[in-house]
Design brief:
Number of domains: 3
Structural class: alpha+beta
Strand order of the largest sheet: 6-9-8-7
Largest sheet: 4 strands, antiparallel
Strand content: 15-25%
Bound molecules: flavin-adenine dinucleotide
Number of helices: 3
Oligomer: single chain
Shape: elongated
Order of helices and strands: EHEHEEEHEEEE
Distance between the termini: 42 Å
Radius of gyration: 22 Å
Length: 189
């Protein structure tokens, strides 16, 4: 496998002592060290949209699709996509609305369900070991979930801030019980 997948050979198994001593993960039983990367999701999406627009993409923002209806008359266009700003007919529809797909395609009810994930950005004090931020990204894997810490890189806005996410295991029903997008779970604070 090491010959075919670049980077696999860089995985290193770390002892409990090294993880606890060097990486300060006090209850860890062991760890893996490997090359990791992170990108700005916002810049990534904006970049893809720009490329699409250059190639003729018709982008309609702030336009929720309220229903998708099959067209009855014989035509190469099979679907009517209804929005508050009018309808368009389409040969093919791709639903890319994530946890809310079942709203438009009810057969997905109970199959795709919204799950609320949460993360926070913490501004560390200068007293933090390693000069006020983290020297590396972290993933913590537990039997029942995961958490992660990612420092914002040099040169980015708010460089050094630590983005901490995960914590589904600390939420009721692992986040499935509440799908409100405009709230956060105070138990995680
Ligand atoms: C707090 C949090 C932290 C995360 N951190 C990471 C991370 O560090 N790394 C990582 O890889 N992933 C992370 N994820 C997961 C990642 O965000 C998702 O996997 C990814 O965004 C899914 O992309 P998507 O395009 O399928 O759906 P989404 O990004 O959810 O996009 C779906 C879009 O559809 C739109 N939509 C929904 N219904 C309709 C409708 N009826 N009409 C029109 N539009 C509609 C929505 O407004 C939305 O813009 C995180 C998720 C959360 C919640």
């Amino acid at each position: 496998m090491n010959d075919t997948i670049p980077g696999v050979e860089k995985y290193e198994v770390l002892s409990k002592e090294e993880i606890q001593g060097k990486y300060l993960a006090v209850n860890a039983v062991g760890g893996l060290r490997y090359d990791a990367g992170s990108i700005s999701g916002y810049k990534f999406v904006i970049g893809i949209l720009k490329l699409g627009l250059e190639k003729g993409l018709n982008l309609q923002t702030n336009t929720p699709v309220t229903s998708i209806e099959p067209l009855s008359s014989p035509s190469s266009h099979r679907w009517s996509v209804v929005t508050p700003r009018g309808s368009i007919s389409a040969r093919t529809c791709i639903l890319a609305c994530n946890g809310y797909a079942a709203h438009l395609y009810p057969r997905l009810q109970g199959v795709i369900v919204p799950l609320r994930g949460q993360m926070s950005a913490q501004r560390p004090g200068a007293g933090l070991p390693y000069g006020g931020s983290l020297p590396t990204t972290y993933s913590f894997i537990y039997a029942d979930g995961y958490e992660y810490m990612i420092p914002r890189p040099e040169g980015s806005k708010f460089a050094g801030d630590i983005c901490i996410g995960g914590k589904c295991r600390a939420t009721i029903a692992l986040g499935l019980a509440n799908n409100a997008n405009n709230m956060w779970n105070r138990r995680l604070g």
